Amino acid sequence: MENYRNLPKGICYLRNRQRFMGRFQHNKQSYTFYDKNLDNLIEKMNKAKYELSLGLDIKQKPYSVDEWHDIWIKYKENEVKYGTVLDYRETYRLHIKQPLGQKKLKKITSDHIQDIYYNLAAECYSKSTLKSVRAVLNGMFTYALRKKVILINPLDRTYLPKIKKPKKKQVLSLEQQKIFLAYTKGNVCEPLIKLAAGTGMRIGEIRGLQWKNVDFKNHLIHVRTTLKYGGKGKGYRLDTPKSESSERSIYMLPDIAELLSNERTLQSRRKIMAGDYWEPCEGLEDLVFTTSNGRPLHVSKVNIEIKKIQQAMIDDGINMPPITPHLIRHMFATRCLEKGIPPKVVQDILGHSTIEMTLDTYSHVLPDFNEKEMMKLQDVI
Questions:
Q1: Residue 351: phi, psi to the nearest 5?
Q2: CA–CA gap between residue 1 and residue 12 (Å, rounded)
Q3: For residue 282, is it within any domain?
Q4: 3-state SS string over 88-133?
Q5: Which residue range forms the structural domain that includes residue 43?
Q6: Are residues 29 and 75 in the same domain?
Q7: For residues 350 and 333, what is the distance between their CA atoms, to the nearest angstrom?
Q8: What is the tens place of the pLDDT at every residue in 18-58?
Q9: Are residues 110 and 212 both part of a single domain?
Q10: Residue 74 sits in a domain of what CATH number?
Q11: Are residues 281 and 343 in the same domain?
């Protein structure tokens, strides 16, 4: 039988359990470790002493990345807008959960993070998607560092790979736009689509538009809210727009004012016809666009109706780029620039935070625009 009498200080052998036990104190707290192998136990204890010396709380649960994400999200719910929290959750679900979710938070290395970046780049995801993934990961690990769950932030030694230059955005020509809008006639989403085409509003801003923010007297639409859906159990709610610059007022063209006036009349009729079946969500009773029973419109409903319209065009032999609510927003901006509206004004109408965002997004229009402007100097030089 081996002699376990001359063991290092703080370590003893438990014969009834056939394993070694090591114990030490740090800042008046006791820490105990077990292992069947003496060398492994000593290594565990030395590692624990080192981590404690750096301020790590080693008594905390060894969280998985999934578990820590849930903790971090609850913290962020008190720090950022509701819509931002939804964006964080979706980014995590789509790009982080599968490769990292079941791994222990402490075990994540810079290589794990870098592999995610490389894979996203290889799958041709945009630079903005990679930045969103990095923002979520950095938020999670920075919070873990602050809570002394980890010693270092693995993102500190990572970088975003270069992204292939994205393809030019496809936008409907003026002729295609006229055909598309003609095909919307009679569709349940016709007023919503035409409002998007005439104002450049984001789909969430249109779905969250309230009658109190439609100023018929001064011909203005005040963009103050956007509609968000939190999933089962959380439902719909109004949130502030995407950024501070997204809160804006847009002039209503006469056709848009008439469209909204007609929609208000039709909604009043639908409300009377529905009777007791008119059941708007609490706090969302003033929405401009609703279902037949007063409920908010889900974005998927809008997408389905746009696909129906495009399919009708295809059936008639008319082919166009895939049409989405965001493409309609681009369509509006393109028409503005083609008509000579200054980019700064277009920026304000769209609610872009910087003029650079507008110029970068619509660079495909500006060369022709610049040429026309430069020709004004022909008689000067």
A1: 80, 25
A2: 15
A3: yes
A4: HHHHHHHHCHHHHCCCEHHHCCHHHHHHHHHHHHHCCCCHHHHHHH
A5: 11-53
A6: no
A7: 8
A8: 889 888 888 777 888 899 888 888 888 887 787 777 666 66
A9: no
A10: 1.10.150.130
A11: yes
Q: Answer whether 110's CB lies under 8 Å from 158's CB.
A: yes
Question: What element of type H or E holds 262?
Answer: helix 254-274
Q: Are 211 and 179 in contact (CB under 8 A)?
A: no
| 38-65: b (≥16 Cβ within 10 Å) or e | beebbebbeebeebbeeebebeeeebbb
- Residue 319: inside a domain, yes or no? yes
pLDDT at 145: 86
User: Are 208 and 314 contained in the same domain?
Assistant: yes
3-state secondary structure of 170: coil
What CA–CA distances, in Å, run from 244 to 247, 353, 354? 6, 8, 11
- Spatial contact of 8 and 42, defined as CB atoms under 8 Å apart: yes
Rounded Cα distance between 96 and 93, Å, is: 6
Query: Per the structure, how many domains does the chain have?
Result: 3
The answer to whether residue 197 scores a pLDDT higher than 80 is yes
pLDDT at 211 > cutoff 80: yes
Is 381 among the domain residues? no
Q: What is the DSSP string of 137-164?
A: HHHHHHHHHHTTS-SS-GGGG--PPPPP
Are residue 21 and residue 96 in the same domain, yes or no? Answer: no
Strand (E) positions, 189-266? 214-215, 220-223, 226-229, 236-239, 248-251
Same-domain check for residues 38 and 149: no
Return d(Cα 105, Cα 64) in angstroms, integer.
5
* Residues 194 and 96 placed together within one structural domain of the fold: no
